[in-house]
Predict the 3D structure of the following.
Amino acid sequence: MKCWIVGLSALLMTAAQAGPATQVAWTEETLEQVERGDPEKGKALAGRCASCHGETGVSANPVFPNLAGQLATYLYRQLHDYKDGSRENPIMQGFAAGLSEQDMADLAAFYSRQPPAKPAAAAGKLSAGVLRLIEHGDSKRIIPPCRVCHGDHGQGERIDTPRISGQSQAYLAQTLKAYRTGQRHNDIYGRMRLIAEQLTDEEIEGLAAYYGALAP
Ligand code: HEC
Ligand code: HEC
C-alpha cells in the first residue's frame, strides 16, 4: 500500500502542472445543489435523452454510456463540463447547452436512483496482465490499481470517481482511448489521462471487457 501512496503523489504532482480540467468546484453550495436535485423533475427532462440513453438510463446501443445507478455528483459534473466545453462531444454539447444548473441536478438525481444495467456476459478468460492492472497496478509505469479508486466492485467513490461496473464495454474502451489521446481532458489532475496514456489497445479491450461484465 505504501508504495502506492508514493506513486499516487507522484502522479498528482505531475498532473497539478496542467491547466484546470473542469469549471466545477465542489463547494458546499454545489454539493447541496446536487443533493437537492428533484428526481421527478429529472424524469420529465430525461424524455429527450431516452432515444440514446434508454428510458431509465440503460442504453440500447453500446456506443451510448449507461447512466443508471451512476453517482449523482459525477453525472452533474459531466453535464456541466459538456455545457462549458471542458468535455468535448458535439452530440452531448448540443444537449447540455440548454440545461440550467438545476436541470443538471434534477437529471443527476433521476439517473443516479435507477437500478444499474445488468452486466454483460463475461467474454472468455481475462489475461493475467489485465487482472494484475486491476488488482495491483504496475509500479514500473506508475499505474495504480483500478480498484484503489473505482472500488472492489467498480462501484465508484464519492465525489468524482464514477461507477464503471456494468457500463457498456464499447463505451468503456472508447472513453479510455479518448483519455489516452487527450481528446477527453476533463479529469481533475489528469488522473485518468496519465493512466490511459500508458495502456496498450489490448489492455484497454481487456479492462473494458472485465468491467462491462462485472456485477455492480
Ligand atoms: C443522440 C444521442 C444522445 C442523446 C439524445 C443524449 N446523449 Fe448523452 N451521450 C451520448 C454520447 C454519444 C455520449 C458519449 C460522449 C463522449 O464520449 O463524451 C453521451 C454521454 C453522456 C454522459 C456522460 C456519461 C459518462 O459516463 O461519462 C452523460 C451524463 C449524458 N450523456 C447525459 C445525457 C442527458 C442528461 C441527455 C438528455 C438531456 C442526453 N445525454 C442525451 C449520446 C446522447
Ligand atoms: C487515482 C484514481 C484512479 C485510478 C487508479 C483509476 N481511475 Fe478511472 N477514473 C478516476 C476518476 C477520478 C475518473 C473521473 C474522471 C473524469 O471526470 O473524467 C475516472 C474515470 C474513468 C472512466 C470513465 C468512466 C465514464 O463513465 O466515462 C473509466 C472507463 C475509468 N476511469 C477506468 C479506469 C481503469 C480501467 C483503471 C485501471 C487501469 C482506472 N480507471 C484507474 C480515478 C481513477
